[in-house]
Structure prediction request, 289 residues.
Amino acid sequence: MTVCTIKDPARPQVVGTFRDPDLDDVTGFALDGNTAYLASQSSHFLLIVDVSTPENMKLLGKVRISQQGSKGPLYKMAYRNGFCYMSHQGEKKLYIVDVRDKRHPRVIGNTQVTTDGDGAYCVTMKGDYALVGTVFGKNNRLAVVNVTDPAHPRMVGELKNPHLSEGIGTIVGERFYIACWPHNAMMVINLSEMSDTRMPSIEGVLIDPRLSKPNRCAVVGDRAYLPIIEADGVAVVDISDPARPRFVTLYSAPVMKKPYGLTARGDYVFVGARAGDSLVILDRRALEK
Prediction:
């Protein structure tokens, strides 16, 4: 895990790096104040790291997330109120880990989110629910899991659609803006009436080849930003009418080869490029000029 200073957005700099023998590919990440939570893909570990001093980050605790002999990767995760919610693609499960004692984290519960060919991929929290997106199946879904009692999670339903995949993105108010990687698509999902007996609904869909395999979605105001893997860049989508998202523009650059991470804040879009080994900071307002 690498920490960069972005105090001067025009000149980001690496200030610290954390490594551990049980940390391979960091497929899941969450941050709570000065504590980072890392999901290690193949070793199936959750690692908890003190990042208060970026130049000297320290391991606080770790725990294995899987059954004995489990196969398949550990993927994305979310943190809330002393618990980590983690997706295990191989086991097709959502795991819940009690991290209130950071030095002694412990797995307290899990639930199956699919038994089909898809696997759990991303976790996003909304109220009493964990929304778990799946991927790599002919039929993918957004599983709705009631986590009112984190030790006893209950899957209460699912949303399916031919273009739905991954379920990775950003919740703003009562809407969930997600990227759908295999389908060159993004979706707007309405969460306003979600309950144990009523599932989220699809409010808007944009399918456009210019989205080129999007796999993240960040929102600022009436714009959504998506990293587009096959175009080595970022797409901009107008979401002022959530029922009719509209492609605006894209920006590509060799330094963003295979952009796999993206977030946005204020005037800036921050892009992590997998094959480019880079952090790229874009002026989001200049993208549309």
User: Anything to note?
Assistant: The mean pLDDT is 96. The radius of gyration is 18 Å. The chain is about 0% helix and 55% strand. Residues 10 and 274 are 20 Å apart (CA to CA).
